[in-house]
Amino acid sequence: MQQSGNEMIGFGDDLVAHGNKTPPVLSAAVFELQQSGNGEEGLPPARTKDGSLDRYGKPAVRGRTGGWKSGLVLLVSQGLVTIAFYVLEASIVLFTKYVMRQTNAEAESTFSLWMGTVYLCSPVGGFLSDYLGRYLISIYALVFLTVGFGLLSASAHALLKPHRCGVIGKLCDPHAPVGVLIFYISIYLIALGNGACESVLATFAADQFDEEDPAEKQSKTSFGWYFVMSSNIGRFISVALLVYTESTGNWLPIFWISTGCVITALVFLLSLTRRYRRFKPSGSPISRIAQVIVASWRNRNLQVPSRGEGLLYRGEWEIDGTRRKTDDLKFLDKAAINIPITQVEEVKCILRLLPVWLCTIWSSVVFMQMPSLFTEQGAAMDGTILHFQVPPAGMIAFDIISTSTLIVFYDKLIVPLHIKLTKTQSKTLAELQRIGTGFVIAVVTMLSAGLVEQQRLKYSDGSTKEMSSLHILWQIPQYILMGASKAMVCVAEKEFFAAQTPDGLKSLEMILSFCCSALGGYMCHTILWVVNKIFASNGKPGWVPPNLNDGHADRFFFLLAALTMLNLGLFVMFAYRYISISTQMRDGIEEMEEVAP
Questions:
Q1: What CA–CA distance (Å, rounded) separates 305 from 334?
Q2: 8 A C-beta contact, residue 575 and residue 317
Q3: Peptide linkage before 285 cis (omega within 30 of 0)
Q4: What is the rounded distance in angstroms from the CA atom of residue 322 to the CA atom of residue 443?
Q5: Among 159, 393, 426, 584, which residue's Cβ finds the most Cβ atoms within 10 Å?
């Protein structure tokens, strides 16, 4: 559920450098298309400066490869994939509940495990692209998506019986095991395809712009924002499709539309094969980390000189001044006897990140509640406005609006308020401050959801039906708060990992971000399982029973609020003790100046 942040992966420090400013207009694209020739007559064609290659493995020619022409095609492909995937993501809870006849707890567990797998497949896709290349993995990902959505559409024919079943108040008939098996195979093929696509497609799109060329570097920054916007547009279109589906019970049309979207995205991707810029696969950074760990273990009985004379490349680091040999995590220093100390210090930087990273996992647990328990809560509320029925999953539109609004107006609203309250002239909140602020908003979000659930139970009709007379629009505050929390946490988390990951291990930035979401999904499933084991015993329905009116989902929301506060406390402690790379650089330079004669 951290798409707003994860979609920015691949545009790296260009987006970080621009903060959250409104993206420039497409004038750069027009200029490039006008200048797509080779320059003056008689001169050799201009080559890219960033080492990118064409399809034949030769240095890419600017104007003939990459640029906005390739970028816009990938932009359309991303939007189509987002439409297809988000339709399933936002509706899978209701589909498993009303079509697959699962309980509330089972439907939420199915969703959490599935989303965890989606995000777990993202670093796997990134890892494979380090060896096979991003273009090839993008094709494989879209093929998996096409097969997955095709199977899902086909299985829906067998599952949707009787006609127009699978809507609130009308369950479908029990299903044969084969139909259920095909359904699960299809959604996990989609998880594999989307996970790989999400981690690779954005980076592959960013590869189409030369960072060493000032004009293309500016275009790359603009394109990063348009890439995020294309995803948000795709999500809005998905919400519109969900409104139609949940109002009429026509699941088949949107599944086939999703299948058509991914097929079209694959065709678009293949259409400019000759024009794409590529980079030679460089291998995985995990191997660099493994080398340090293994070397430190093998050298565990050796003695490291007190002044470090025996360490490899020691002089290079001191002269460079970009990073000094640090005194913490000394057990890794023994690896520097036969491995460059630059590599050892890179691993130390990653290990220092881990406490903060572990705290950010909890944000995914909170964000998982929006398309799962929030949707189940809305399905048990009155959604009638005049003669129109508001679909529970359609409430996610308020989250999208909140996230997009806060990102666009961050500089105009949040930063001036920060300056006024703190009486400082800081241009923006630091990444860790924004993440902490997002956690505070997440606490308020869970409290708001718990209070709404209390009122929903108060106005329940007391019958066997899972309904309440409380209107679904009372959910708007919790969706808006959730969007604000995501905007603060996801974007800042992306910027933090981009800034604090060493240059030699930059692709770990993506792995850390997606693993955070994956572990959050599995953690959400585990918490729900433990809660049900404890409270759903001795004939008691538990907190999240098949009929929400028989349980206490409000207590589950309050539990998440308490655990979020505990996580916030740990995060503040780790953030306070964290030593950033910039601080290490400054300390190293100051130390060199003191030693210099």
A1: 10
A2: no
A3: no
A4: 39
A5: 393
pLDDT band at 391 (very low <50, low <70, confident <90, very high): confident
Read off φ and ψ for residue 216, nearest 5 degrees.
-70, -30
Task: Return the beta strands (E) in 349-427 as ranges.
Answer: 384-385, 388-389
Using a cut of 0.85, tell me whether the model's pTM lies above it.
no
Res 401: pLDDT: 87
d(CA 8, CA 221): 10
pLDDT tens digit sequence for 560-587: 999 999 999 999 999 988 877 655 544 4
Q: Residue by residue, what is the 3-state secondary structure of 35-62? A: CCCCCCCCCCCCECCCCCECCCCCECEE
Give the Cα separation of 554 and 538 in Å (integer): 21
Mean pLDDT of the chain: 78
Q: What angle do CA 105, 108, 110 make, to 5 degrees?
A: 105
For 365-379, give the DSSP string. HHHTTIIIIIHHHHH
The residue-averaged pLDDT of 271-297 equals 82
Cβ atoms 114, 525 nearer than 8 A: no
Distance CA 179, CA 156 (A): 8
> How far is 393 from 370, CA to CA, in rounded Å?
9
User: Which residue in 35, 366, 29, 64 sits closest to 225, CA to CA?
Assistant: 29
CA distance 225 to 457: 42
Pairing status of strand 384-385 against strand 388-389: antiparallel
Cα–Cα dist 265/281, whole Å: 24
Count Cα neighbours of 318 within 13 Å in the Cβ-side half-sphere. 14
The alpha carbon torsion through 306, 312, 318, 323 (nearest 10 deg) reads -100
User: How many whole angstroms separate alpha carbon 198 and alpha carbon 179?
Assistant: 28
Does an H or E element contain 241, and which?
helix 214-248
| Average pLDDT rounded to a whole number, residues 342-361 | 86
Average pLDDT over residues 96-110: 85
Tell me the mean pLDDT in the region 417-442. 78
Q: Are 224 and 19 in contact (CB under 8 A)?
A: no
Q: List the one residue out of 274, 333, 329 whose CA is nearest residue 299.
A: 333
Q: Look up residue 248 and give its amino acid.
A: T
Tokens found for residue 529: 């399982």
User: Best-predicted range by mean pLDDT among 113-117, 161-165, 444-448?
Assistant: 444-448
**Region at 166 (left for phi over 0; alpha for psi -120 to 50; beta for the rest):** left
Lookup: tokens for 410: 């961050």
What number is the average pLDDT over the span 32-60?
A: 62
Strand partners, 389: 384
Q: At what angle do helices 134-159 and 67-98 cross, to 10 degrees?
A: 30
Closest by Cα among 539, 532, 436 to 488: 436
Q: Chain centroid to CA 526: how far?
A: 21
Per the CB < 8 A criterion, the answer to whether 242 and 90 are in contact is yes
